[in-house]
Write a structure and sequence with these properties.
Residues 513-584 form the Pyruvate:ferredoxin oxidoreductase core domain. With 615 residues, the chain is an alpha/beta fold. 36% of the residues lie in helices and 20% in strands.
Length: 615
């Protein structure tokens, strides 16, 4: 009977795993996304978890979710709503049902829908399905009890067995989408390499979930398959933005022939970069967890002076604290990459949520005229490219550089083709040359780029001192001369202005669009998807998305003035729109602003942009 089931081919599907923050929903989502990426599907993920260290079990505020969008072709977002909702308890069903499509399949663990569970989730009756008016297919299974039965002979205690519940849900979803469990087994064995008994227990449970679906058909008439249409050969992996960022720094250091130093202080959602880089001592990576944010940045300034590729990582609150040391790198003209993984603010705000509210802070949030290049990664996989490019700019132009990501792209993941470093551009720091000996001074510059030459301590004949006080352009000695300060201020600005960045590309109806959508950083996928939706409805729409913020691409003004209507969409109150107005004379765009700590919804974007076009 099971062999006679119909298998439907799908172009894409969205699955959302949800449960208590201790139910392992992030791991469940990661396993399913890894399985999908490994077979060649494109993916986009959205981990959505509470900021509580450990919310009360079964509470509405303690629900953790992980949404993954799997596609045969390119997918740009984790999806507005899901085709499959896994709700491991009553609170998860209550809070996550709003993300389910009207046609969604819902999977619940009936053992977690007891009277006390329903009361915690604020249900008024003992029939939550009926109370919520759910009309979709519901696979209601006693998952907890089946996990206990599956592991009864292992000698595991009840608490340990219950930690495997998430694997049953993964197995059931893998059955529903005809996934090969071999990839999941490999993932689990690697994840629990130091605890082989735990690994084998989880593997037994994931097979139990798969077999349950296979043997009972789980109340559905067919299963699904998503074939990959990827045409680019190569090795692929599922990678998060934070891990891709770490790899980008490692690649840049290797390309430049330098050791990599990270001076950091743990802060959500940037800490994973510190964790990842700390694993790679064999590659010459040095990581220091400092006592506070400013010391993390100051130690990186010192490492830069000593000749390393220096990085410091943080989020918005840490940028506030690092600003003094960042400014030290500006006046000393030392290479430094400052990674800002943006989160909800102000103050400690929403630590686990995503915004784009640090833009003006990293552009202008320091005392004095302190120009600093700013880049913004556009996706989890672009974090690798952006980290490499930020490092290249810092090293070749002797300047601190800010790399903006955000919680959405940093914690999200996508299918990533492993790069060939031979294809990446060389990184060539402007080192002093032997013939300069005897005539070199610390602020001697390349006349074409305005970049000062780098003398690494220990280079014979190039001993020097740098510091936070203004220096004389000619001698490098401390100077309070007003004309010299004016000159040095202009030289530091001109050096940044001369950095060559690619033109901003216009996608979609670039020649005759009735509306140009403009954005920056991590909103790329949602804005691209909104453009695609509007174009499929017959509207003329284009997209200009910015990765390089300072300096802006040279064609920025021409692009902004080419279209009758321009809307700048961003997850703040209009910071990028204001910056563009400052840089482009006479530019007055429409604005779409949300500050919810959540990614944009494509349908809301498309509706708002459509109304603008109808004005």
């Amino acid at each position: 009977m099971a062999n006679d089931m119909m298998v439907k081919e799908l172009e894409q599907v969205v699955v959302r795993f949800s449960g208590d923050s201790g139910d392992g929903m992030q791991l469940a989502g990661n396993i399913f996304s890894t399985v999908s990426a490994t077979v060649g599907n494109d993916i986009s993920t959205f981990p959505d978890y509470p900021a509580d260290i450990r919310a009360p079990q079964g509470s509405l505020t303690g629900v953790s979710g992980f949404q993954v969008h799997v596609g045969a072709d390119k997918v740009y977002t984790p999806g507005d709503q899901c085709d499959v909702l896994v709700a491991m308890n009553a609170a998860a069903l209550k809070t996550q049902y709003k993300f389910a499509k009207p046609t969604a399949c819902i999977i619940i663990d009936t053992d977690a829908f007891q009277k006390s569970d329903l009361e915690k989730a604020a249900f008024k009756t003992d029939n939550p399905i009926e109370e919520m008016g759910i009309r979709q297919d519901v696979i209601a299974a006693p998952i907890s009890q089946m996990v206990k039965d599956c592991l009864a002979d292992t000698g595991m205690d009840n608490k340990s067995m219950m930690k495997c519940r998430n694997m049953f849900a993964v197995g059931l979803v893998c059955w529903l989408f005809n996934r090969d469990l071999k990839i999941a087994e490999d993932f689990i064995r690697e994840k629990f390499a130091k605890k082989p008994q735990i690994a084998e227990a989880n593997i037994r449970v994931i097979h139990s979930g798969y077999d349950y679906g296979h043997n009972t058909h789980s109340s559905v008439s067919h299963t699904y398959r998503i074939e990959s249409k990827a045409t680019v050969p190569g090795r692929y992996m599922d990678i998060t933005g934070n891990k891709a960022t770490a790899y980008g720094f490692i690649a840049a250091a290797e390309k430049a022939g330098l050791s990599l130093y990270l001076g950091s202080y743990p802060i959500t959602p940037a800490t994973d970069v510190l964790h990842e880089l700390s694993k790679h001592k064999s590659l010459g990576v040095k990581t220091v967890q400092c006592e506070d944010e400013i010391s993390g940045c100051a130690s990186a300034v010192g490492a830069s002076f000593a000749g390393a590729l220096a990085v410091t990582s943080t989020s918005g609150p840490g940028i506030c604290l690092k600003s003094e040391a960042m400014n030290l790198a500006v006046i000393m003209e030392l290479p430094l990459v400052v990674l800002d993984v943006q989160r909800g603010g102000p103050a400690t705000g929403l630590p686990t949520k995503s915004e784009q509210t640090d833009l003006l802070q990293v552009l202008f949030g320091r005392n004095g005229e302190s120009p600093m290049p700013v880049l913004a990664a556009t996706s989890p996989t672009d974090c690798f490219e952006a980290a490499y490019e930020a490092s290249k700019i810092a090293l070749e132009h002797m300047t601190p550089v800010v790399l903006l990501t955000d919680a959405f792209v940093a914690n999200g993941s996508a299918a990533w083709k492993l790069p060939d470093l031979k294809e990446y551009p060389a990184i060539c720091p402007p080192y002093v040359r032997p013939e300069m000996k005897g005539e070199w001074t610390p602020y001697q510059r390349n006349p074409e780029t305005g970049v000062r030459y780098w003398a690494v301590p220990g280079t014979e004949g190039f001993a020097h001192i740098l510091g936070g006080l203004e220096k004389d352009d000619k001698t490098g000695a401390i100077s309070t001369d007003p004309e010299n300060h004016d000159l040095m201020t202009h030289l530091r600005q001109e050096k940044i202005d001369k950095i060559a960045v690619p033109d901003v590309e216009v996608l979609g109806d670039r020649d005759d669009a009735d509306l140009l959508i403009v954005g920056f950083g991590g909103t790329y996928g949602h804005l691209h998807a909104a453009m695609d939706e509007l174009r499929s409805a017959g509207k003329k729409v284009a997209l200009a998305h910015f990765k390089y913020i300072n300096p802006l691409p040279k064609n920025t003004a021409e692009v902004m003035k080419r279209y009758k209507k321009v809307v700048v969409a961003e997850q703040n109150m209009g910071q990028f729109a204001g910056y563009l107005r400052m840089k482009v004379d006479g530019f007055v765009p429409y604005q779409f602003n949300q500050v919810k700590g959540q990614p944009f919804l494509v349908n809301e974007l498309a509706e708002a942009f459509s109304k603008l076009m109808d004005k």
